[in-house]
């Protein structure tokens, strides 16, 4: 009798697991099974590489979710790169050996670099834009390179350009997440939001 009872419980568990195929989570605004093409609509920033990196990041984000279509066509996501921000962080006084610039001028110890972009979905060639992401921003802080107590401009340039590419790609990934209905976190710490 107990062997029959154990077998009935196993069958009951198997039936219940088969009836519950997933946790029930669905993206709020995501394109259910839709494959999207990606196109750069326009870029207002001077850095030509930024637009390409934003588009690459967007493609990566869509591909990760299985929502990327190859080539050109519709429906497609159109991207607009709106702004590049840079600001100095940690200005050092001329009396500080590590922070002194040429001629004793104050020098920044780091630079905050950021990009702002937006994207929207267009279903047909003359279709109206839908699912606009709004402005999405990503930023990073790049430390100033100092070699043997003096600034190293070559290393600064290399790290600065690398940070710009990484931030632009991260903006694209965030645009993809927002288009698919996923939450997007900000880079800024509390009290530093823009």
What does this protein look like?
With 194 residues, the protein is α+β, with helices and mostly antiparallel strands. It has one domain (33-179): Lipoprotein like domain (Double Stranded RNA Binding Domain, 2-Layer Sandwich), CATH 3.30.160.150. It is 32% helix and 27% strand. The chain contains 3 helices and 6 strands; from the N terminus they run αβαβββββα. The chain has helices spanning 2-19, 48-64, 153-179; strands spanning 37-43, 76-92, 107-122, 136-143, 146-147, 150-151. It has a 4-stranded mixed sheet. It has a two-stranded antiparallel sheet with strand order 5-6. α2 (48-64) links the parallel β1 and β2 (76-92). α2 (48-64) crosses α3. It is globular, with a radius of gyration of 24 Å.
CATH superfamily: Lipoprotein like domain
The helix-strand sequence is HEHEEEEEH
Helices, by number, come to 3
Second rung of CATH, namely the architecture: 2-Layer Sandwich
CATH topology: Double Stranded RNA Binding Domain
| Distance separating the two termini | 69 Å
- Helix content bin: 25-40%
Strand order of the largest sheet: 1-2-3-4
By helix and strand content, what is the structural category?
Answer: alpha+beta
- What is the strand content? 25-35%
Largest sheet: 4 strands, mixed
Please tell me how large the radius of gyration is.
24 Å
Global outline: globular
The overall strand count is 6
Overall pLDDT score: 77
Tell me the name of the CATH class. Answer: Alpha Beta
Number of domains: 1
